[in-house]
């Protein structure tokens, strides 16, 4: 009994004393923000047909659906073309800023609002990856995903707090004004009003305590609450990934085409899913390879949730799934679905691998900066090293070094 109590006490202390998986949460943040940004940029010429006034799913149809399911979308606040362009641009900008980790707490809220607004405006647009982005955009708001590899982490190293500067309060003030307008005019439902109000109040209290009482008990309590919410969010993300693979695998098991090993043959013959017809024909021409890939896909998806606590087996299956999604991106022409799933899979990546990856990225960046300095007039091999390059983990928060314990993401 004592051992059980001691183990439970250590688990509770760890769950509340630190935000677990800082590198994994950073990769998830960067992955989903980059995926959504790339999607918005690629579809920029077609944005009016997808989510705007020229789409087959008209503004009035969207309004009726939202009135019935109470989904969140600011695009239905106005049918003005200017309002649509502003929301689309803001969604793209928030994606870029979230990937960089600038004022992450506020920007993650804007990112989630942009994702929900566009996807709930036209519910029939997407390829499956949009559902994953939809959920993860909400979960990221709950996590402290900018502890490392972010501009917030760099600001925390330089100034002792990620909330330093006036940009945070100004940004939260603008967000508060927007949602106050939505509340007063009745454009937001009661549930969404409560959610955004709670987020705004909590972040305001956090910023006040961080600014004026950084070492008080109240600040320590807020840290414990933030760590608890972060760890719960990371657990939900991991559970969501396991659920996706488990349901996908078990549904496949019930299909006759998956049972006889021919399921992958049919999409390879569809023009819509054949960006490289020659490559698809070559693969479809080998019955043995199609059968192995079909059975292998089912086996990996069904087995993965049961191997989460078996580190070596989990890492092997994780690598297989990443390769599988890369193959889907190339063979079936679904790059954003694959990017979203790989970003979700990143929650299970080993920390050692991420540290190695960060070290390689930091080394490449340092080498590039050194070559640029040598190319300048007066530059040379003895040129001074920039102060940012002497910071732990790199000046831009992209190196392998762990963030200090007081890194905060209340921006």
Structure notes:
The chain has 411 residues and is mostly helical. Among the domains are: 19-155, no CATH class; 245-354, no CATH class. The protein contains 19 helices and no strands. The chain has helices at 2-17, 22-42, 47-50, 59-69, 81-100, 104-121, 129-142, 151-159, 167-184, 190-212, 217-253, 256-259, 265-268, 277-284, 287-303, 311-331, 335-345, 351-375, 387-390. Helix 2 (22-42) packs antiparallel against helix 17 (335-345). The protein is globular and about 70 Å long. The model is unreliable at 382-411 (pLDDT under 50). The chain crosses the membrane at residues 163-184, 190-209, 229-251, 282-304, 316-336, 342-363.
Short descriptors:
411 residues, mainly alpha, HTTM-like, transmembrane helix, disordered C terminus, single chain
Give a short synopsis of this structure:
Among the domains are: 137 residues, no CATH class; 110 residues, no CATH class. 69% of the residues lie in helices and 0% in strands.
Range of helix content? 55-70%
The N- to C-terminal Cα distance equals: 43 Å
Strand content: under 5%
Radius of gyration: 23 Å
Looking at the structure, what is the overall shape?
globular
The unreliable regions are 382-411
List the helices and strands and how they pair.
Blueprint: H1 2-17, H2 22-42, H3 47-50, H4 59-69, H5 81-100, H6 104-121, H7 129-142, H8 151-159, H9 167-184, H10 190-212, H11 217-253, H12 256-259, H13 265-268, H14 277-284, H15 287-303, H16 311-331, H17 335-345, H18 351-375, H19 387-390
Helix pairs in contact: 2-5, 2-7, 2-17, 5-6, 6-7, 7-11, 7-17, 9-10, 11-15, 15-16, 16-17
